[in-house]
Inverse folding.
């Protein structure tokens, strides 16, 4: 196993059979994490980037079988933030040192392209030293283009799973893996810094699915790669399926770091939800981004993608402070610059 870790480190790749071994085996996990942490340090030192997450709407026209804010979940109290409320979140975030704002939401028709462009351009006008990241789901090429021209810098769209059959088991017929992938290629072509990724341990996922995910990421070469454990939500069709495994998720973070040495990889809220120290463990396994929540506290609980989501009662400053303590506790440093990809090795 040790030689497989070494091969993965040297070649940034392994044949499927060997990838399968590393994904499935907890043996030599520590060595895997240390190797990944080492390569991350050679690109990023001890820097951990922060992104201010603004969950601006929980309305969604889609019905993903795993997602707590899916259209058919009638138990969610729906909300959308106004432009002014979003700008208030940015103001508070800027004062706390954030230089990237991530606007994430369900696919909400009330936010027309004009309105999104207006919000993006206003943020860029007030904070020209900041990056704006959008995560609004699947849109047309023209829409993506319009947001980009309005000043959006980055876009997060997880492919969720690269296996078509698995995709079908997680989504209704109105959605397709083909379109998801097309969106990602469009975003790249337009010039966004693109983030993709998948859930770990989602229902019906096999190791072969995970290998397909890694192969798709190799094709796409995204700048950001976000993965996190699947966590069930009581009001979804997949509520009876068990949560993704923390250790499997950590091993995948480490493998992704070794395959994509300069990628921006978040230690996600979902990781912190399945284990109290999940985010610290994620950083130690190769992640280098954290995303404190900047959404107003009165709506946080309503953006419940899965049960028992953490950070729903803390304010922005508290969330940032908590994460800073966690980052410092394991010897890293939270930095407040714009945090783009470091393409050149430092050492
Ligand atoms: N609508 C946008 C989209 O489709 O990309 C952004 C919002 S969506 C809720 C953000 C991400 O949440 C998804 O890409 C998915 O991977 C994750 N997610 C949704 N439900 C989840 C669950 N039950 N457990 C873990 N992650 C989940
Ligand atoms: Fe749309 Fe989850 S189903 S955000």
């Amino acid at each position: 196993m040790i030689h497989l870790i070494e091969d993965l480190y040297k070649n940034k790749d392994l044949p499927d059979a060997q990838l399968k071994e590393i994904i499935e085996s907890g043996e030599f996990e520590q060595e895997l994490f240390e190797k990944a942490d080492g390569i991350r340090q050679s690109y990023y030192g001890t820097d951990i980037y922060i992104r201010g997450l603004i969950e601006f709407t929980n309305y969604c026209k889609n019905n993903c079988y795993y997602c707590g804010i899916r259209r058919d979940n009638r138990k969610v109290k729906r909300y959308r933030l106004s432009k002014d409320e979003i700008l208030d979140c940015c103001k508070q975030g800027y004062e706390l040192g954030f230089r990237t704002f991530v606007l994430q939401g369900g696919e909400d028709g009330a936010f027309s392209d004009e309105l999104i462009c207006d919000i993006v351009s206003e943020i860029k006008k007030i904070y020209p030293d900041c990056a704006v990241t959008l995560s609004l789901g699947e849109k047309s090429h023209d829409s993506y283009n319009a947001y980009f021209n309005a000043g959006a810098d980055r876009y997060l769209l997880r492919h969720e799973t690269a296996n078509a059959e698995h995709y079908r088991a997680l989504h209704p017929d109105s959605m397709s893996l083909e379109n998801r992938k097309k969106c990602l290629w469009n975003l790249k072509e337009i010039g966004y810094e693109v983030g993709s990724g998948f859930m770990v341990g989602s229902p019906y996922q096999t190791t072969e699915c995970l290998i397909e995910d890694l192969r798709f990421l190799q094709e796409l070469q995204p700048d950001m790669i976000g993965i996190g454990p699947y966590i069930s939500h009581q009001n979804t069709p997949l509520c009876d399926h068990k949560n993704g495994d923390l250790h499997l998720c950590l091993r995948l973070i480490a493998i992704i770091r070794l395959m994509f040495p300069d990628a921006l990889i978040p230690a996600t809220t979902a990781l912190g939800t399945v284990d109290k120290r999940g985010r610290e463990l994620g950083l130690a396994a190769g992640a280098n981004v954290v995303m404190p929540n900047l959404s107003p506290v009165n709506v946080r609980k309503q953006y419940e993608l899965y049960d028992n989501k953490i950070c729903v009662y803390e304010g922005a400053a508290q969330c940032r402070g908590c994460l800073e303590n966690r980052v410092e506790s394991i010897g890293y440093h939270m930095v407040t610059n714009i945090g783009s990809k470091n393409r050149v090795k430092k050492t």
About this structure: Residues 66-67, 104, 106-107, 135, 137, 157-158, 160, 199, 228, 230-231, 233, 270, 305-306 surround S-adenosylmethionine (ligand 1) (CB under 6 Å). The chain has 14 helices and nine strands.
